[in-house]
Amino acid sequence: MAQLTTDIEREEAAVGVGDPIPVGLSAFAFTTAILGCVYAGFILPGVGKGISLAVATALLYGGLIQILAGMWEFRKGNTWAATIFTSYGGFLAAFGVIFLPAFGIEHALTANATLDPALGLFFLCWTIFSGILFLGSLRTNVAMLLVLALMFLSYLFLTIGELAGASTVL
Known about the structure:
170 residues; mainly alpha; 7 helices; globular
């Protein structure tokens, strides 16, 4: 009886909150496409103006919007989607901050010739995290399983590429 009350209360608390999954997935897909193109040097170079576009997209659309979508999912009681959106939104925000000149992170790492290994470590940690999420998604639907498997592979190639000296092939 207590569980039923909790479910009813949760449902009532989520009234007025629309489904944040479309906006979260849109932010995720759009930002991933921009970052992928910039990292591969497709259309825009991976330095200068190209990275500026990626930083702006990662911070505002990918980072902020996904974090908001994650918070709305928490409000709806969907912890799994909330964890995914909030985590990857945080990744994109952190990634964007690395390249903001005001923070000086990229400059400090480039001055010591440690930018590629540092990004490799950053991506390695996200590879491991994505692998854990993939394992956790084995009891969900095929779409979620596929998205997380592809995320794992993406981070794996980014990790290898950075640890191989920023290999654009990978």
